[in-house]
Amino acid sequence: MADPLREGSSDLLDGLRGEGIARILLATGDRHAVAERVTQGLGLDGLRSDLTPDQKVLLVLTERKNGPVMMVGDGVNDAPALAAADVGVAMGVRGAAASAEAADVVLLVDRVDQLRPGIEIARRAKRIAIESVVAGIGLSVLGMIAAALGYLTPVEGAILQEVIDVAVILNALRALRIAPRGVAEAAAG
Fold first, then answer.
1. Could you read off the pLDDT of 16-53 as tens digits, one per residue?
2. Are strands 87-91 and 105-107 parallel, antiparallel or unpaired?
3. Radius of gyration for the alpha carbons in the chain, expressed in angstroms and rounded
4. Tens-place pLDDT, residues 142-157
5. Average pLDDT over residues 70-82
6. Strands (DSSP E) along the chain, which ranges?
7. Are residues 71 and 102 in contact, defined by beta-carbon separation less than 8 angstroms?
């Protein structure tokens, strides 16, 4: 018995490499012969099979020397490794509740190819958040300097700060409109 390769896995790997993810490994509890057969031709950077949950955790910790580690899993035996990873992603529909609890992100569809749009949304949302923080702090500091130099009364400073807060919140709300490239292109076409 073996888990089949999830639909869209090959396209996902190509897409992840396009997103700048350099190393992609498969860590599985399946027998080596089964894992090799299922992943043949995928172009993985490594295959670790016959792993117990604690060996998966050790692999995640070892891979940290190469940079941040994202672990994707769906079973109870993946939960410890998901928790140990910098970013743990659980496959939510068929996956075990333990995996969902241990993960940072839960994909609510059982399609691993949705990982790439998730990464794109996360990166764009992070960029918007950083813009909002920098703009908010920058404008607030300018307001404080203006107030310290006597150009703003306390009431004007308070009103200005509220305007800055509202502007930053409105900017952050742009994250609600983020649509991954493939989804946005399909909607436009």
1. 888 888 889 999 998 999 888 888 888 899 999 999 99
2. parallel
3. 22
4. 999 999 999 999 999 9
5. 89
6. 25-27, 46-48, 70-73, 87-91, 105-107
7. no
Residue 97: domain span: 9-113
Q: 126 with 70, same domain?
A: no
| Distance from C-alpha of 141 to C-alpha of 148, rounded to nearest angstrom | 10
User: ∠ CA 127-129-133 to the nearest 5 degrees?
Assistant: 120
Other Cβ atoms less than 10 A from the Cβ of 55: the count is 14
Q: How confident is the model at residue 14 (pLDDT cuts 50, 70, 90)?
A: confident
Q: Tokens in use for 63? A: 């891979």
Structure tokens at 186: 């399909």
Please tell me whether residues 55 and 144 are part of one structural domain: no
Number of domains in the chain: 2
Helices 154-172, 115-148: crossing angle, 10 deg rounding: 170
Q: Which residue has the tokens 């396009």?
A: 18
Residue 147, in any domain of the structure: yes
For the chain, helix, strand, coil in percent to 5 are: 60, 10, 30
Q: What is the pLDDT of residue 7?
A: 65
Q: Compare 117 and 173 and report the one with higher pLDDT.
A: 173
For helices 115-148 and 181-188, angle between their N-to-C axes, nearest 10 degrees: 100
Q: CB under 8 Å to 91, separation ≥6 — which residues?
A: 72, 73, 74, 99, 107, 110, 112
Confidence tier at 5 by pLDDT (50, 70, 90) = low
Same domain flag for 154 and 108: no
